[in-house]
């Protein structure tokens, strides 16, 4: 499918979506968000794909929601169209693992979209921030909630109240990103990581993602119970038999996604 603001490609079992609106530093306009949703629908439906990488340019993952598009909104128009929730959260409903490969600016909605992914791999030039306060609004795509869960109240509160940006090293120390790599290596590392995930048993990878995500939605006791039941469910798969047999026989497993 031809898109205007994104590029979509597949490399083996990995789907790559590149935000591609360079003149606006990948500002997330409504059309881009709609295209991103369509691309994720396509990659979810593609049985050959086991993991998705979402990335931007070297200068900007995304500099936020499109300020020019949003400037004229009223409360009633924002409310009636359910602005932000509508469409954006498609990333969070993706069942396949999604890695955000972030270089350059990930600000406002850009930081929020990165945090909607399953984890963030950052280039050493990445900068994260929630500068909405400077525009007379607050984050509207989960920034006050996901950033707080990722880095704790002190840093999240300071960043949301002041608009201060974190560089990649601080983001790694704070637990916002899983790893920082040199800018030149970002896509190779992201694709290598995605390939590793895509090589695993598909159902087990999905179950694993579901179980980790449960940690953010429930109590510890309920989360442990959810994990245990999902762990038990793994034993109903052929891939559990294959994975353990391969270990015993000292060979690589050949998962069949069943
Ligand atoms: N929306 C619309 N256009 C944007 C944009 C945005 N969020 N960010 C950058 N652009 C546009 C600029 O207007 C500019 O376009 P023109 O050439 O037509 O003027 C172009 O991208 C390049 O930007 P700059 O000239 O500003 O580039 P820079 O290198 O000097 O600065 C920057 C880079 C610091 C990221 C700066 O562009 C900036 O501060 N951008 C806005 C960041 C921001 O406030 N994001 C939050 C948006 S609100 C939000 O996201 C709400 C939410 O929670 C969902």
UniProtKB/TrEMBL annotation:
Superkingdom assignment: Bacteria
EC number(s) on file: 4.2.1.17
Key words, A-Z: Fatty acid metabolism, Lipid metabolism, Lyase
Example GO biological process: fatty acid beta-oxidation
GO molecular function: enoyl-CoA hydratase activity
Catalytic activity: a (3S)-3-hydroxyacyl-CoA = a (2E)-enoyl-CoA + H2O; a 4-saturated-(3S)-3-hydroxyacyl-CoA = a (3E)-enoyl-CoA + H2O
Function: Could possibly oxidize fatty acids using specific components.
Family label: Belongs to the enoyl-CoA hydratase/isomerase family.
Name of the protein in its database record: enoyl-CoA hydratase
Organism, as annotated: Roseospirillum parvum
Lineage: Bacteria, Pseudomonadati, Pseudomonadota, Alphaproteobacteria, Rhodospirillales
């Amino acid at each position: 499918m031809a898109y205007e603001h994104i590029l979509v490609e597949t490399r083996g079992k990995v789907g790559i979506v590149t935000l591609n609106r360079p003149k606006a530093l990948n500002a997330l306009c409504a059309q881009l968000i709609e295209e991103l949703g369509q691309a994720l629908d396509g990659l979810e439906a593609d049985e050959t794909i086991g993991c998705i990488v979402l990335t931007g340019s070297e200068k900007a993952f995304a500099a936020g929601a499109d300020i020019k598009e949003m400037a004229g909104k009223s409360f009633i128009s924002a409310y009636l169209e359910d602005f932000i929730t509508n469409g954006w959260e498609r990333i969070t409903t993706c069942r396949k693992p999604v890695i955000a490969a972030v270089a350059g600016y990930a600000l406002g909605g850009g930081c929020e979209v990165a945090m909607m992914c399953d984890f963030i791999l950052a280039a050493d030039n990445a900068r994260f921030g929630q500068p909405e306060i400077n525009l007379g609004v607050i984050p509207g795509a989960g920034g006050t909630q996901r950033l707080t869960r990722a880095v704790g109240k002190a840093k999240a509160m300071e960043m949301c109240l002041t608009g201060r940006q974190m560089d990649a090293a601080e983001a790694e120390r704070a637990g916002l990103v899983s790893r920082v790599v040199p800018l030149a290596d970002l896509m190779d590392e992201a694709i290598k990581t995605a390939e590793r995930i895509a090589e695993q048993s598909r159902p087990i990878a999905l179950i694993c993602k579901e179980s980790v995500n449960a940690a953010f939605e429930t109590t510890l006791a309920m989360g442990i119970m959810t994990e245990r039941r999902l762990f038990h469910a793994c034993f109903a798969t052929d891939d559990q038999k294959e994975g353990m047999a391969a270990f015993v026989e000292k060979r690589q497993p050949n998962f069949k996604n069943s």
